């Protein structure tokens, strides 16, 4: 019985061959992990980079980062040069994109390269020259204690020191140059807001001696062509529909002609600037520039169809109703030797809503 009992107390491990201590330790480690499969394995041993132990390798990385920043600066300068030098209508063939705008291709390529090189340079700097030592920091509450704040400041100063930002002047200066030049790409794009208008908004094609041409018949107008109570649209002599700048010019020079009984005209200036009751006013509404085109014969009122601004053509085209801020500008007219209606100058004030800030 004693022998049988002794055999029963022998463990299975006793029948296994002896193992070296290292294997036993390894087995013990496995058994510990099996006890808690979610145990923190800890950080692996830190391995130094070549740049950490070889200053020549660090210098090579520094020069590489600086080269990327310098190339970024050149790409930004290329962006600006492309924007200035390449015509907006120039088309080139680029495989496999096909025929595309040369300006868009150059702008996209140079700006993309400039931004990529700044990012690539920063990544290469961080991966090869900044400290890569793993740091463990316990989580803390949102409201930091003074001790934590001091630690953050100390960590920041340590990180700044380890990054070599103050010591590696070549990287620092080229990075400053690249980052400073990139915003210039956006500055030069302001050119697309258009050239400075100068006095273009204040002047139209109307000049002394310019004939009033019927917009429908393309013929110069005579007084007898305009009946009392009728509404006629006109444009300046010499402005044709197939002109390249027709839309820009007609938007300022479009004219609305109405013939009234001279006795119905209340405003003295309007009467002096008319011819036998024929008055000429800008067709462009002084609210947002819509074409005024609805005329009420009995009241001599003209209505803008966009926002219902109403003007009295018998009283200096003053505003009767609606959001328009000031009357329609009047064009002074007369008849030339051949009997055609002509302008005696330009509008006295700018047409449309462009000068909304003028006194009302």
TrEMBL record:
It is a multi-pass membrane protein. The chain crosses the membrane at residues 65-86, 106-126, 170-190. One of its GO terms (molecular function) is oxidoreductase activity, acting on paired donors, with incorporation or reduction of molecular oxygen. InterPro entries: QcrA_N (IPR045603), Rieske_2Fe-2S (IPR017941), Rieske_2Fe-2S_sf (IPR036922), Rieske_Fe-S_prot (IPR014349). The keyword Disulfide bond applies. Residues 1-22 have a biased composition (Basic and acidic residues). One of its GO terms (cellular component) is plasma membrane. This is Cytochrome bc1 complex Rieske iron-sulfur subunit.
């Amino acid at each position: 019985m004693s022998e049988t009992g002794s055999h029963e107390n022998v463990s299975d491990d006793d029948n296994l061959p002896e193992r070296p201590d290292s294997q036993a330790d390894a087995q013990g480690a496995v058994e510990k992990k099996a006890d808690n499969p979610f145990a923190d394995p800890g950080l692996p041993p830190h391995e130094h980079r070549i740049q950490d132990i070889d200053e020549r390798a660090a210098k090579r990385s520094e020069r590489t980062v600086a080269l990327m920043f310098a190339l970024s600066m050149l790409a930004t300068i290329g962006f600006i040069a492309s924007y200035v030098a390449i015509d907006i209508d120039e088309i080139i063939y680029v495989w496999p994109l096909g025929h595309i705008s040369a300006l868009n291709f150059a702008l996209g390529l140079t700006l993309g390269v400039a931004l990529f090189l700044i990012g690539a340079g920063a990544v290469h700097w961080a991966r090869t020259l900044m400290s890569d030592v793993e740091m463990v920091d316990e989580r803390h509450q949102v409201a930091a204690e003074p001790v934590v704040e001091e630690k953050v400041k100390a960590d920041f100063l340590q990180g700044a020191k380890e990054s070599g930002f103050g010591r590696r002047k070549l990287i620092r200066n080229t990075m400053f140059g690249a980052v400073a030049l990139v915003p210039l790409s956006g500055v030069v794009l302001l050119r697309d807001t258009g050239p400075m208008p100068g006095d273009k908004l204040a002047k139209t094609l109307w000049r002394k001696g310019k004939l009033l041409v019927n917009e429908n018949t393309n013929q110069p107008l005579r007084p007898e062509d305009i009946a009392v109570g009728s509404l006629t649209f006109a444009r300046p002599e010499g402005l044709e529909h197939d002109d390249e700048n027709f839309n820009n010019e007609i938007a300022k020079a479009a004219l609305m002609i109405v013939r009234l009984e001279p006795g119905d005209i209340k405003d003295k200036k309007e009467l002096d600037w008319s011819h036998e009751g024929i008055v000429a006013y800008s067709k462009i509404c002084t609210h947002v520039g819509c074409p005024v085109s609805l005329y009420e014969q009995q009241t001599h009122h003209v209505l803008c169809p966009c926002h219902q601004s109403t003007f009295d053509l018998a009283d200096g085209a003053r505003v009767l109703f609606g959001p328009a801020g000031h009357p329609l500008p009047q064009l002074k007219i007369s008849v030339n030797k051949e009997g055609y209606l002509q302008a005696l100058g330009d509008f006295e004030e700018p047409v449309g809503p462009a000068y909304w800030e003028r006194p009302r």
